[in-house]
Each structure stands twice: as C-alpha cells, then as structure tokens.
Design brief:
The protein is α/β, with parallel strands linked by helices and 416 residues long. The chain is 39% helix and 20% strand. It contains 15 helices and 15 strands. Helix 3 crosses helix 5 and helix 9 packs across helix 10. Bound molecules: adenosine-5'-triphosphate and magnesium ion (MG). The site of magnesium ion has 4 residues, from loops.
Length: 416
C-alpha cells in the first residue's frame, strides 16, 4: 500500500535562491542512497516537495534505512497515493489507510531523535484513554471542487464512524492524518525521523584525517552532516601497522560513505618519515612532530582534491597530543582551516555517536595504530613551538624528499 514516500526537509536553511541547490543536492543524494537498494525507484521534485516512488517490488525496511542515511532529510512519510474518485471513495481509502498505518512495521533503529511508539489499534480498543486525531487537508490542486475544511469534516466523520475508539483533537492530536490533493491524492500520517543536516554537496569539500580509531569517523560524519563532501587521508606504517589495520580504515571509510557518498581515501606510506623523526628528534616530541607532518601532507592532498579545510577527530585534553598547547603547535603548520567537530565532546559522547552511526564495532577492532607504536612513555603535554621548530631543523637533510616520496607513492582508494 505504501509505495511512495514524502521526504520532509528543513525549511529554514533554504529560503531564497539556495533552495534550488539544496533540493537538487538532496535529490542526488537520495538517488545515490537508493541505488544500493533493490527496487525501481524514482525521485521527483514537485511543488516544493520531494517524493520517492517505488515501482514494483521493494523492501520497505531497507528503503527507509537507506533514506535515514541521507543528510538533509528531516522526516520520511510513507504515503498512500490514490486516484481522485470522489469524496466518498476518498473516505474509504482514508479508513483503509488508517487500518494499515496503525500496524505498520516499525522502522529500523532511527538515526535521529525519538519517535512516538507506533499506535496499536487493538491496544487502543481496550484502553480508556482514547487516541486523538485530526485530518489536515491541503488542496495543492485548486480546481478540486470541495474546500479543505469540508473535506476535513467529512473525512473526520467517516473516521469516527469506522473507529469509535478514536476522538478528534484539533490542538494536540496523537495522530495527524494529512490529505494532500494534487493530480493524485496523497494520504500520510507517520513521520519517520531522518538524520537532519544539509545534503552533501551543498557546502564544499574537506579532507578528513581518518585513522582506525573511534573519533575520526565520527568527525567525518559530523562534517558530512553539514553538507560537506569528504575525502580522507590515512597514514599507514607498514610493517609496523598491518594490512588488517589498513582494511579496517577502508571499512570505516565505507561506513562513513553510506552517509557522505563516495570518498577518495589516500593511503600514505608514513613509515620512513616516522623512522626518520624517531632517529633525529627527541622521543617525547615524536608524536607532535609526526602530527605536524600528517597535517602538512594532508594539505597536499587537499590541494589536489579541491578541499578547502582539514578535519580531525581531536578533542581538547583527550591525550597528550590534544592539549590546547599541542593543538596550537599542530595547527601552526596548516594554512587551511582545521575543523575539529569533536573538540568539546567527552569520549562517552563520541562513543554514543559512533554506535548510532555504526562505526563503533569496527573502530574497536584491535589493530595497531601508527601513533601508538612510536609513542613515547612521557610525551610532552605542553610543547613549545620554538623548541619543536628547532627539533624539526634536524630533519632538514632528507625530510622534503621523504614527503615528496610519500605523496608520490600514495595509494588512492575510491570508497563507495
Ligand atoms: P581517533 O580515534 O580518531 O584515532 P585518537 O583519540 O586516537 O583519535 P590521536 O591518535 O591523537 O587521537 O589522533 C587525533 C586525530 O589525528 C585523529 O582523530 C585523526 O583525525 C588524526 N590521525 C591520527 N592518526 C592518524 C592516522 N594514522 N591517519 C590519519 N589520521 C590520523
Ligand atoms: Mg588514533
């Protein structure tokens, strides 16, 4: 019965001439998300609305789940779409719709907000506190002969006759029955929450420093949620980090790409640079110097891909390399803005998002990380920029060439 979805999106961000771009990007992202679901879908924009039509067989749950990954979607409404066969027939359809709606299978775990529990007519029947409803008719087709108010009261009466346990409440109904009269008539009620945010493609491109940890995939998700296209760079240190560690990062990129669309993942061979820093610089400065080279190299890929910012999973004070002083020293080498969406998050809060977006289980797989292998017992927590710069001078002889080699031997994986 529900082979159409009405897509609700945030209206506030898209007033004026941006609306067109916003809607176009949203339609593209919806098409992309549905391309992985079995079924024949068409996505249409019509009078400030977006509809997804499903032709033939399709999996309801899978479709909803895919739509719940599309940033910019605030709500997904399963719609019953019918021909206009007069008000009497419309009443029958609305009753059929309610019978079906009140026992729709619940959607897969949502990515946003809480949802009213599904209403259950059988339960309601035995329940003295009766469920309230209201019919809201909208005549997008002005030639329809009956005014909206009249349609409301006619359909309201029909519903009351069919379901004596329901009651009308025009102010705060439990159930809003929307009836939209266009060339076809659309009936919907349930709103399944979407992830919100802005459609990817409306806010430029950024380069994510993606490790195999918990934080950076969440950071990528959050920047993507603001409409930003994401590419990623991973610093790999074979043989100190294994192929499994790399596969894990590819898997994380795949999960993030479910939300952001395809990601170009640059896998940089970082071993020689790390060993060189290890050989030449004080060991307690190793992490911070290494992070400065990561940023420098990430900027090189940003320039190639057209990214205008870097993104990391850093949060103040989480580890020695993320104190305010360390962040300042790391930042000093960057000419692009560095976005750190998790900067004020506690680990627990980050973990919650990671679980919700499904990266957590992959992130905690126990593979070594290039930073932990070379990490000093007592890394500096308040690095001094001048001191660090002086240490880096010890790398003068070979480091530029090594950075060039690292950039030139990078493997780029197109992650979908
Ligand atoms: P994460 O869980 O994201 O790995 P973390 O708590 O382990 O973070 P660090 O190892 O200090 O913290 O890394 C801070 C940030 O630096 C990461 O969030 C990530 O953006 C970037 N980063 C660290 N290691 C790598 C790496 N090997 N490749 C790419 N980026 C990295
Ligand atoms: Mg890490």
């Amino acid at each position: 019965m529900f082979s159409t979805f009405l897509i609700k999106y945030g209206e506030i961000a898209i007033k004026g001439k941006n609306r067109h771009l916003f809607e176009e990007a949203l339609v593209n992202q919806i098409r992309h998300a549905l391309s992985k679901v079995d079924g024949d879908f068409s996505v249409m924009r019509e009078q400030g609305r977006i509809y997804v039509d499903c032709e033939g067989d399709f999996d309801y749950d899978e479709t909803v789940e895919a739509l719940q990954c599309v940033f910019g979607i605030v709500g997904i409404c399963p719609v019953m779409k019918i021909e206009d066969r007069g008000l009497d027939e419309l009443g029958n359809d609305v009753i059929r719709f309610l019978e079906e709606t009140l026992k729709l299978p619940s959607a897969p775990a949502g990515h946003a907000g809480d949802r009213k529990p599904d209403l259950d007519l059988d339960r309601i029947e035995n329940d003295s506190s009766r469920v309230t409803f209201k019919v809201m008719t909208r005549r997008a087709k002005k030639s329809y002969p009956i005014p909206s108010m009249e349609v409301n009261s006619e359909l309201g009466g029909r519903i009351l006759d069919a379901f004596p346990q329901l009651r009308v409440d025009v102010h705060a109904p439990d159930l809003l029955v929307h009836v939209e009269i266009r060339d076809m008539i659309y009936i919907y009620s349930k709103v399944i929450p979407g992830p919100g945010g802005m459609p990817v493609g409306t806010s430029g491109r950024a380069m994510l420093l993606l490790s195999g940890g918990i934080d950076s995939p969440v950071a990528g998700y959050m920047i993507g949620k603001r409409g930003v296209v994401i590419d990623a760079v991973y610093f790999h240190a074979p043989p100190y980090t294994s192929d499994r560690a790399k596969e894990k990062v590819v898997d994380l990129a795949k999960i993030v790409a479910k939300y952001t669309g395809p990601i170009r993942l640059h896998v940089v061979n970082f071993t020689d640079i790390q060993l060189y820093i290890y050989e030449k610089c004080p060991h307690d400065e190793l992490t911070i110097i290494m992070r400065r080279y990561m940023m420098r190299i990430a900027e090189r890929f940003a320039a190639m891909d057209g990214s205008i910012a870097l993104v990391t999973g850093e949060s103040i004070g989480q580890v020695a390399s993320q104190t305010m002083q360390s962040l300042a020293v790391t930042n000093e080498v960057c000419s692009l803005p560095v976005f750190r969406p998790l900067i004020g998050f506690d680990k627990q809060e980050i973990v919650e998002v990671a679980k919700r977006i499904d990266t957590f289980e992959t992130s905690i797989l126990p593979f070594e990380d290039c930073c932990t292998i070379f990490v000093a017992k007592h890394p500096v927590t308040k690095p001094n920029l001048r001191v660090i710069q002086r240490s880096e001078l010890k790398l003068q002889e070979k480091i530029d060439e090594m950075v060039e080699t690292a950039v030139n031997t990078t493997e780029t994986i197109f992650v979908k």
